[in-house]
Specification:
about 325 residues, Farnesyl Diphosphate Synthase, globular
Amino acid sequence: MQLAQKLLREDLDHIEDCFRQYLTSDVPLIRQMSDHILASGGKRIRPVLLLLCARLSGYGGEYRYTLASVIEFIHTATLLHDDVVDGAPLRRGQVSANVAWGNEVAVLVGDYLFARCFEMMVDFCDRRIMKALAGTTSLMAQGEVVQLMNSGDLSLDEERYLSVVRSKTAALFSATCRCGAILGQLPSDREEDLAAFGMDLGVAFQLVDDALDYVADQEESGKLIGRDLAEGKMTLPLIYALRCCSEDERQKLSAIFAKDDLHADDLGFVQNLIIRYDGIAYTQRQAGFYVSRASERLAAFPDSPARQALAELAKSAIHRRY
C-alpha cells in the first residue's frame, strides 16, 4: 500500500475534498453524520484501486475523482446498513452511526448515500459504468440476504461461503477495477483481466478479514473480537475447523450458536477449536492463493508504477493486522 499512497498522494487529497463536496446537505443531521463518516477515515482501498486501474489504463481525466467518490459512498452506505443488521457497536474504532444516532437515522442516511451516488453517476454518461455499478449494488444486497439466511448453519460448506464472499464483498472490488478499465477505454480482454484481478483481491481481502475477527488486536482493529461468531456468521476459519473436528465438538458448537448471548468462555472454546484444527492458517493459505492469482492477472499489462502498486496492494492484503 505504501507505493500506492506515494504514487497517488495528490489524487487522494483531491478525493477527500470530493467527499466533503458531495456529502454536503441542507439537513443538519446528514451533515453531522457525514462529518462522522469522514472523520472515521478508513483504508480507502476502493478509491485507491479505481485510481490505480485508471492510471494503468492511461486515463487521467477528472471523472476518476467523482467515480472514486461514488464507489466509496456505495461501500459506506452498505456499512451503515450492515451495522444496523448486525447491531455492531463499533466501526473503525469509533462508536458506530447506528449506536450514535439510532438505527432509523443510520438506515436513512445510508439510503441518502445511495441516492447521492445515482445523482453523481448521471454525469458519466457511460452506460457501461452505470450498468457495472448498478448490477454490483444489486448483487451485494443479495449477498447480504443470503449471508443472513446462512446464519448459524453448521452445514455451510466452503463453496457456498465463497459464493457469498464474491457477491457481498468481492463484487465491488471487481466493479471498481472494471470501471478503471472502462475510463481508459481498454479492450474487452484487458477489462476482464482487471475485473478478475479485483474479484480475486476482494476474496482474499474478505478471507483475511474473517481470520482477523478471531485473532486481531481489538485496539488496532477497532472491532470487537469474535463479532462474526456473535452474529451467527459462518466464516472460513470456522467452516474449516468444523470439517476437521469431532462430533462432540460439533454438538457443543451447535449449542453455542443456539444461545441468545455469547459468553467469553464460548468465544474461547471456538477460538481454541479454530486454532487446534488450523482454521486460521488454512484461511490465510487460501487468501494467499487468491492474491497469487490476482497478481497473475496483471501479467498482460506492461510494467509501470501503477502495475507495481497494484501488485503490492494485492500482496499487502494477506499481511494486514486489522
